[in-house]
Specification:
InterPro entries: Aliph_Amidase/BUP, C-N_Hydrolase, C-N_Hydrolase_sf
Helix content: 10-25%
Structural class: alpha/beta
CATH topology: Nitrilase/N-carbamoyl-D-aminoacid amidohydrolase
Protein name: Putative amidohydrolase
CATH class: Alpha Beta
Pfam families: CN_hydrolase
GO molecular function, one term: hydrolase activity, acting on carbon-nitrogen (but not peptide) bonds, in linear amides
Largest sheet: 8 strands, mixed
Number of domains: 1
Number of helices: 5
Keywords: Hydrolase
Distance between the termini: 35 Å
Length: about 250
């Protein structure tokens, strides 16, 4: 049996406090690495918080890898794991994107996914490419938060060979909160979804009740919500594409 151990970083970032959030991510990644994890997944825009542009604007966003990203890649290499990192970026033609980067054990940036459904985000352009990333022999699709609203992106990832969908998100309950979209995408595609959500609050959105989840065939196999940052670890059977763990192993960051 081929098994991988995965950590979801259910974080409490401070909107617009880039240095604090970067330090929080580094600390959480190092703690997760102590559990011998193969993948570490952060929420959407873990580096900045969701509504950062209202507080600090966008002039700070750079092409990636910027100075901190290069440093973070060396951290990832030193702890021998793979990381999915939610971080804004500027493209070569100076357009801004809400992106998730994949960094492998060698500290190399091996792929990115730019959020497609950005109508409510305001500050960024919509991505156009929907591609899978080969991560140590597993084809992974990335579906960022509201990209789960319709079946288009999930079905495109399936058509492109995805075996697992990773869903970094900043999606709290409420009027426009999640309402079965992730579950439906798992039914549509037959693929498992690893939803890494967050806690806390931004300018106008609260995430205290937001859930990080493992979903298969429309069912929530594991779920977690908390009012503080937590590392959620679980084991996954790659051959059977099924959950091994009966619950998350939870470590809170104090």
């Amino acid at each position: 049996m081929r098994k991988i151990r995965i950590a979801l970083l259910h974080l409490l970032p401070i909107v617009g406090d880039i240095q604090y959030n970067q330090a929080l991510i580094e600390r959480a990644v190092k703690l997760a690495a102590n559990k011998n994890v193969d993948w570490i997944i952060t929420p959407e825009l873990a580096v900045s918080g969701l509504q950062f542009s209202r507080k600090i604007g966008t002039d700070w966003i750079k092409k990636q890898p910027d100075q901190w990203m290069k440093h973070f890649c060396t951290v990832v290499q030193s702890i021998n794991t793979n990381v999915f990192l939610g971080c804004p970026e500027m493209s070569d033609d100076e357009e801004l994107y809400n992106s998730v980067f994949v960094i492998n054990r060698d500290g190399d940036l091996i792929g990115r996914q730019r959020k497609i459904s950005t109508i409510s985000d305001g500050w960024c352009h919509s991505g156009t490419a929907i591609e899978t990333i080969d991560l140590e022999g597993i084809k992974v699709g990335i579906m960022i938060c509201a990209d789960a609203y319709t079946d288009k992106i999930a079905n495109t990832l399936l058509a492109n060979g995805a075996e697992i969908i990773v869903a970094p998100s900043s999606w709290g309950p409420g009027l426009h909160g999640p309402n079965g979209e992730w579950e439906q995408r798992s039914i549509d595609t037959g693929l498992p979804l690893f939803v890494c959500n967050r806690t806390g609050e931004d300018e106008t959105v609260a995430f205290w009740g937001a859930e990080s989840m493992i979903i298969k065939n429309g069912k929530r196999l594991l779920s977690h919500q908390s009012v503080q940052s937590a590392i959620l670890t679980f084991d996954w059977n790659v051959e059977m594409m099924d959950l091994i763990s009966s619950q998350f192993q939870v470590e809170y960051l104090t």
